[in-house]
Write a structure and sequence with these properties.
Elements lengths: L4 E7 L7 H5 L4 E6 L6 H11 L10 E5 L2 E2 L14 E6 L10
Parallel strand pairs: 1-5
Antiparallel strand pairs: 1-2, 3-4, 3-5
């Protein structure tokens, strides 16, 4: 990614943000993606740290766009200026092997 992009970030779960963050209107906000944010994983980490989501999202974040998950390994080159990214809490998934 060469030029910085602006993306809209929507934090879906009300419990993700603190009351003061919600009152500041941070549920819907803009984030600037600098060139060093190379992957979707980097973007998720930026959102995670910027909003101090360690307590509300101990397992991390799941980012999606237009109803489709953005894989963490994917390049941020898939994003365009003014895209809307939805951020949800990543929950524990238990896999049960049936033998």
């Amino acid at each position: 990614m060469e030029d910085p992009l602006r993306v809209r970030v929507v934090l879906d779960d009300r419990k993700m943000l603190t009351k003061s963050q919600r009152s500041e209107g941070l549920k819907h906000c803009w984030i600037l993606l600098r060139p060093e944010i190379a992957t979707i994983s980097d973007l998720a980490l930026l959102v995670y740290r910027s909003f101090n989501l360690q307590r509300s999202c101990p397992n991390g974040l799941l980012l999606s766009m237009d109803g489709f998950v953005l894989p963490p390994f994917e390049s941020t080159c898939v994003l365009k200026d003014k895209d809307t990214i939805r951020s949800s809490r990543l929950i524990d998934i238990v896999l049960i092997a049936i033998s």
